[in-house]
């Protein structure tokens, strides 16, 4: 097995909200640790980028599957992004990781923001990629749960025709997993994918945070991203050209150096390139 080959393991973690909770974690690479948190599309939306990061840089990449996604079980008490943030803070302790860069896309970015509010000493920086969670007057999160998968693709990508999925042509197991993902997303995010208290609470973040945004994102537009960065003390904002809500899928080669450079700049010990 080479250092970049992915390996998967299930850990059982216990938090007050949910009790013992199994978490499936895929890991690859060696070096500076990254925790990558997927969005509502499930772990496959970040798997390719995790492999790219682990193969192209000196990086140890940890990608958990949010319980309830990908056919995994979800305890009834695990029902919010805050609970997931507590769970993943405990995961870093279980893995005995320090100097971690947390990267979250969409709801994964919301979870990363909640982790930043917990202020775990094991994390050195956060990168929120087209994240949801706050309320921005005049710039609502698109009503995802009212959309067909074709409409999701249309709003998510700069070039949607490259990424459309014919759900009816998928095997029954894959269709069931997608339905389970959608159901679990609704539990964690609520129907609006926002928390009215989050924007104000973000004033308590003390860690370095970079907010990245695809200019073609129509799920949450760039003004929403700018408002998110502005809510975080010292938060930086960067617009990514030629990409949408999922730059880790649509433009991974362009996303990689942006993420690496921010992680490198804020690392406690400089990672080898």
Count of DSSP strands: 8
Helix content: 25-40%
Count of alpha/pi helices = 9
Reading the helices and strands in chain order gives EEEHEHEHEHHHEHEHH
User: Into which percentage range does the β-strand content fall?
Assistant: 15-25%
The figure for the number of domains is 1
Overall SS class: alpha/beta
User: Strands across the major sheet, in which order?
Assistant: 1-2-4-3-5-6-7-8
Describe this structure in words.
By secondary structure, this protein is of the alpha/beta class. The protein has a single domain (7-266), classed as 3-Layer(aba) Sandwich (Rossmann fold), CATH 3.40.50. Helices cover 36% and strands 20% of the residues. It is built from 9 helices and 8 strands. It has helices at residues 44-56, 81-94, 107-118, 149-156, 172-189, 198-201, 222-230, 247-250, 252-266; strands spanning 7-15, 19-28, 32-37, 59-64, 100-105, 123-129, 209-214, 236-240. The chain has an 8-stranded mixed beta sheet, sandwiched between helices. Helix 3 (107-118) links the parallel strand 5 and strand 6 (123-129). The longest helix has 18 residues, at 172-189. 45% of the residues are buried.
């Amino acid at each position: 097995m080479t250092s970049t080959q992915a390996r998967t393991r299930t850990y059982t973690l216990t938090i007050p909200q949910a009790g013992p909770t199994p978490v499936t974690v895929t890991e690859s690479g060696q070096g500076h640790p990254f925790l990558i948190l997927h969005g509502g599309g499930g772990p496959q939306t970040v798997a390719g980028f995790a492999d790219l990061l682990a193969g192209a840089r000196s990086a140890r990449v940890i990608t958990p599957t949010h319980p309830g996604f990908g056919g995994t079980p979800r305890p009834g008490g695990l029902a919010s992004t805050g609970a997931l943030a507590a769970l993943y803070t405990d995961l870093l302790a279980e893995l005995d990781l320090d100097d971690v860069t947390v990267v979250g896309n969409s709801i994964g970015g919301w979870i990363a923001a909640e982790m930043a509010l917990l202020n775990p000493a094991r994390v050195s920086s956060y990168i929120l990629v087209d994240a949801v969670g706050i309320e921005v007057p005049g710039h609502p999160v698109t009503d995802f749960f009212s959309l067909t998968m074709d409409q999701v693709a249309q709003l998510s990508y700069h070039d949607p025709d490259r990424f459309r999925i014919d759900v009816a042509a998928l095997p029954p197991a894959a269709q069931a997993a997608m339905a389970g993902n959608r159901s679990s997303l609704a539990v964690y995010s609520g129907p609006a994918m926002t928390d009215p208290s989050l924007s104000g609470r973000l004033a308590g973040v003390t860690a370095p945070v970079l907010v990245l945004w695809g200019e073609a994102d129509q799920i949450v537009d760039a003004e929403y991203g700018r408002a998110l960065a502005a809510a975080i003390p010292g938060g930086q904002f960067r617009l990514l050209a030629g990409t949408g809500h999922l730059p880790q899928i649509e433009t991974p080669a362009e996303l990689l150096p942006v993420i690496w450079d921010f992680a490198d700049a804020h690392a406690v010990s400089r990672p080898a390139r």
